[in-house]
């Protein structure tokens, strides 16, 4: 059956609110039609540049304007990244996702270093993903040429609720970046977070935005908010496992080919809860004891869980062939020194402003 790209919020809400057993059965059936249910892709997330971010994302401890205990660091070196990638590979990861706390990519030495990191990891026969903020078409092309396998750029939430979470970057620019990535052969990874105070309608709205992209993202991370002290969302109640299972199952049904990833918030979930998410169609996880800055289960614990559930880690390039890495001296694309004007909506978000004020009093 051809993939449906015209999902409406009402249709998605109807799926999300089905009796749970019916929802699970439907999602598991679709999952089996499109994927091997015993294979789960394992990615390692590496924060190559931590903290000091100029944005005001209400969930994020890396935003410089909030007071968190986060220790920041400048961009890692290519050798440091290579060593971490080798460790991740030995532990069973097929993909390394490198995250930098930037608003957008800037042409220059640091981006050149990131391109070298991409070439290095691709040559280790691992899938390489980056999450570096907003991106122009030329920058996306340069990453593709270096051998990037995936680019992550989350929509975070529905377009409506986005205005309650972030005021420094616009939803349309997120879509524009995804579109720039789509002009290359790099796959798209885009998802969001639940538990930020949004309604079920907003969750459905986010899934509308993702599922109506054509093609749909190859990978969709579903995060449960990990509230961090000092951030505007520090007091948010954790989401229940049922909400997580519903979200995963609904994502699976509306995006049958996509790899649905259980991302942040896994430490708060029991093994039984995670098993239910795998049954509902999750077929990817982040491994490693940290997810950028928040805690994550240890890789050994994950491998024990895989053993108990009879799951196998997916091999690298099983879904799509390995891209070629073109060395810097043979590049067809230049550093254009672009300075694009990404939008800055600048509306007031009360809880973000309050968290910012608190920082000033603490300073
Ligand atoms: S989510 Fe990304 S863009 Fe937003 S504050 Fe954190 S690091 Fe910056």
TrEMBL record:
Cofactor(s) listed in the protein's UniProt record: [2Fe-2S] cluster; [4Fe-4S] cluster
UniProt xrefs under InterPro entries: Aldolase_TIM (IPR013785), BATS_dom (IPR010722), Biotin_synth/BioAB (IPR002684), Biotin_synthase (IPR024177), Elp3/MiaA/NifB-like_rSAM (IPR006638), rSAM (IPR007197), rSAM_sf (IPR058240)
Feature: compositional bias, Basic and acidic residues: 316-330
Enzyme class, first EC level, given as a word: transferase
Chemical reaction(s) catalysed: (4R,5S)-dethiobiotin + (sulfur carrier)-SH + 2 reduced [2Fe-2S]-[ferredoxin] + 2 S-adenosyl-L-methionine = (sulfur carrier)-H + biotin + 2 5'-deoxyadenosine + 2 L-methionine + 2 oxidized [2Fe-2S]-[ferredoxin]
Radical SAM core domain location: 38-266
Pathway: Cofactor biosynthesis; biotin biosynthesis; biotin from 7,8-diaminononanoate: step 2/2
UniProt entry tagged with the keyword S-adenosyl-L-methionine: yes
PROSITE patterns (alphabetical): RADICAL_SAM
HAMAP family with a match to the protein in the record: BioB
Subunit structure: Homodimer.
Protein name: Biotin synthase
The organism's taxonomic lineage, starting at the top: Bacteria, Pseudomonadati, Bacteroidota, Flavobacteriia, Flavobacteriales
